[in-house]
Specification:
Blueprint lengths: L2 H14 L4 H8 L3 H8 L7 H11 L3 H6 L8 H48 L6 H26 L2 E3 L6 E2 L3 H6 L2 E2 L2 E5 L6 E7 L1
Bound molecules: zinc ion.
Zinc ion (ZN) binds next to loops.
Length: 201
């Protein structure tokens, strides 16, 4: 999927249908900036506006994603190519999100130990504030870990080594399973056998 090509196509179709960026934005109830971002190939129109945009520009969703008018006889093949491409894009996004989660978790831990270290050095018997700082830092760390964990479990899926079944564990199952990197020791919901299941994005 070529965002720049899609952007040029939207701009061309907008002009062909006598819309300015402003009037198109108004018809879709979005900001001028959104239309400008689509046309510069920075992002795609969001799913909620896609159908209406295509209607206004007199094109199909397939045309939009291809950044050109798609011949009816090529339409099926083009749709399939697009689906594969979008799946690949989703996988790449998942991998990036996973890397970000790891960075956040490690960063939060480093920050936590730094705060605890500094607080411990400054601590005197009379002071009450160091306890507050430690409690607050611990809470922030736990909350960060909680959200990082949930996001991590929701990304991609695991594949059973015995039967190949692909599944997403519940948060409880994932929390109880030991893991090494992106591989977790999980019970397969289909064959009920346990295995070191690798995460697939
Ligand atoms: Zn299985």
């Amino acid at each position: 999927m070529d965002l720049r090509k899609i952007g040029r196509f939207i701009a061309a179709k907008r002009q062909e249908n006598s819309y300015t960026q402003e009037s198109l934005a108004e018809a879709l109830d979005v900001s001028n900036r959104s239309v400008s971002k689509w046309e510069r190939g920075i992002c795609l129109p969001d799913s909620g506006h896609m159908a209406e945009l295509c209607k206004l520009l007199k094109i199909s969703i397939n045309d939009l994603f291809n950044g050109e008018k798609v011949d009816m006889k090529d339409a099926n093949k083009k749709s399939e190519q697009l689906l594969i491409e979008m799946t690949k894009r989703q996988e790449a996004n998942n991998k990036r999100a996973y890397a970000n989660i790891c960075i956040v978790a490690v960063g939060a831990m480093l920050l936590y130990f730094t705060v605890i270290g500094i607080t411990a050095r400054c601590m005197t018997k009379e002071d009450f504030w160091p306890i507050l700082i430690v409690v607050a830092a611990t809470l922030i760390l736990l909350i960060t870990f909680f959200f990082a964990f949930r996001t991590e479990v929701d990304l991609g899926h695991y594949a059973c080594k015995h039967c190949g079944h692909k599944f997403t564990p519940t948060y409880g199952q994932a929390a109880r399973a030991i893991h090494v990197g992106t591989t977790r020791y999980l019970k397969c919901p289909k064959c009920h056998k346990r295995s070191w299941s690798k995460k697939h994005f």
